[in-house]
């Protein structure tokens, strides 16, 4: 037995206009706050729209204004909890500004050009770059899309063509070094993620500068390769197995590396023998099982400043978005 298929007709502005007894243009104006239309006409339009289940086509309207109200959000390292924190915050703030987020994943191995070309074809109003590495290829693509404003959040770059919103990483690194020096530690390590210029973050530079002021130095640099828990574990485990003398403390470039390092210390019977500090203040850092001392970047302020620049063309170069704060817990302390 063949069932008759019901064909759904999508309600248009013309349908609403006919039901309300007004012009199609009156229907369009009725859905625009502040547009010139009488209260009576607006009430008739809204009533007819409700009866017919009509919703205005915001994309078509925005294209007619040459603004789509779509912000491209470029991310990688999506297994990193900090990336998820950023995504949650940025989508919340974009939506609060009556815009939409188009999430673009550029995890290594993806076709950067194809992904960003999609953003170009959808005519996004701007791109928020939250990824960990801004490669030469991505910079070249950004230059080709010069008509689309781009703001990078969370790290610096080597070009003056791309706007940057970032914490004062040099200051943060110095504050962390000072905390560890205050414990009386003598030997210090640093664990980095992707092997990029330290200037992109400045955390390592600030850490090293403050240690040198106190007559110390970075004695060991561990390269994890990626911001991944297992990579932090592996880098620390290899160091412990190398037979090299232990440093007193290690500043890890982000929290997932720090958690991996702590796990390696525990599983190799070295828990409490090395102080560990992270960076980002992910949710897991504050749990009883970790109690990770870390740096809180204040991502709400960073994202707000970035969106002010992208959407409103307003910037506060010396605003409090540059400031973060240290979250002192227990992981930086060695066992007595």
Q: Strand pairing plus helix content: what structural class?
A: alpha/beta
**What's the overall average pLDDT, rounded?**
87
What is the radius of gyration? 26 Å
- H/E element order: HHHHEHEHEHEEHEHEHEHEEHE
Helix content bin:
40-55%
Q: Sheet bearing the most strands, described?
A: 5 strands, parallel
CATH superfamily (homologous) name of the largest domain: Response regulator
Cα-to-Cα separation, first versus last residue: 81 Å
Give, in spatial order, the strands making up the sheet with the most strands: 2-1-3-4-5
Quaternary status = single chain
Question: What is the name of the CATH topology of the largest domain?
Answer: Rossmann fold
Number of domains: 3
Shape designation: elongated
Name of the level-1 CATH class of the largest domain: Alpha Beta
Protein name: Substrate-binding domain-containing protein
Keywords: DNA-binding, Repressor, Transcription, Transcription regulation
InterPro entries: HTH_LacI, Lambda_DNA-bd_dom_sf, Peripla_BP/Lac1_sug-bd_dom, Peripla_BP_I
GO molecular function, one term: transcription cis-regulatory region binding
Describe this structure in words.
The structure is a single chain. This protein is an alpha/beta fold and 336 residues long. It contains 12 helices and 11 strands. Strands 2-1-3-4-5 form a 5-stranded parallel beta sheet, with helices on both faces. The model has no long low-confidence stretch (mean pLDDT 87). The chain has 3 domains: 44 residues, Orthogonal Bundle (434 Repressor (Amino-terminal Domain)); 96 residues, 3-Layer(aba) Sandwich (Rossmann fold), CATH 3.40.50.2300; 135 residues, Response regulator (Rossmann fold), CATH 3.40.50. 40% of the residues are buried. Helix 1 crosses helix 2 and helix 8 crosses helix 9. Strand 1, helix 5 and strand 2 form a beta-alpha-beta unit.
């Amino acid at each position: 037995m063949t069932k008759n298929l019901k064909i759904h007709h999508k309600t248009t502005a013309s349908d609403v206009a006919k039901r309300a007894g007004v012009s199609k243009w009156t229907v369009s104006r009725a859905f625009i706050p502040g547009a010139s239309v009488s209260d009576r006409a607006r009430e008739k339009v809204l009533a007819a729209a409700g009866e017919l289940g009509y919703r205005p086509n915001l994309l078509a309207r925005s294209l007619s204004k040459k603004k789509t109200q779509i912000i491209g959000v470029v991310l990688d390292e999506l297994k990193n909890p900090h990336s998820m924190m950023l995504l949650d915050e940025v989508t919340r703030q974009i939506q609060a500004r009556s815009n939409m987020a188009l999430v673009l994943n550029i995890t290594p191995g993806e076709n950067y050009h194809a992904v960003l070309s999609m953003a170009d074809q959808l005519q996004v109003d701007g791109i928020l770059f939250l990824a960990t590495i801004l490669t030469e290829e991505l910079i070249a693509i950004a230059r080709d899309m010069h008509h689309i404003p781009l703001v990078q959040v969370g790290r610096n770059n080597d070009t003056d063509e791309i706007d940057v919103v970032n914490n004062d990483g040099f200051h943060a690194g110095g504050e962390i070094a000072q905390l560890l020096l205050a414990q009386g530690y003598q030997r210090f390590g640093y664990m980095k993620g992707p092997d990029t210029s330290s200037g992109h973050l400045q955390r390592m530079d600030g850490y090293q500068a403050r240690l040198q002021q106190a007559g110390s130095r970075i004695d060991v640099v561990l390269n994890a390769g990626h911001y991944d828990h297992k990579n932090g574990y592996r880098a620390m485990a290899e160091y412990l197995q190398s037979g090299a003398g232990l440093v007193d403390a290690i500043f890890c470039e982000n929290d997932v590396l720090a958690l991996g390092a702590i796990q390696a210390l525990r599983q190799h019977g070295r828990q409490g023998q090395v102080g560990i500090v992270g960076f980002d203040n992910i949710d897991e850092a504050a749990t009883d099982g970790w109690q990770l001392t870390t740096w809180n970047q204040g991502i709400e302020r960073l994202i707000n400043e970035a969106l002010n620049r992208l959407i409103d063309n307003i910037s506060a170069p010396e605003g409090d978005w540059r400031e973060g704060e240290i979250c002192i817990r227990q992981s930086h302390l060695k066992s007595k």
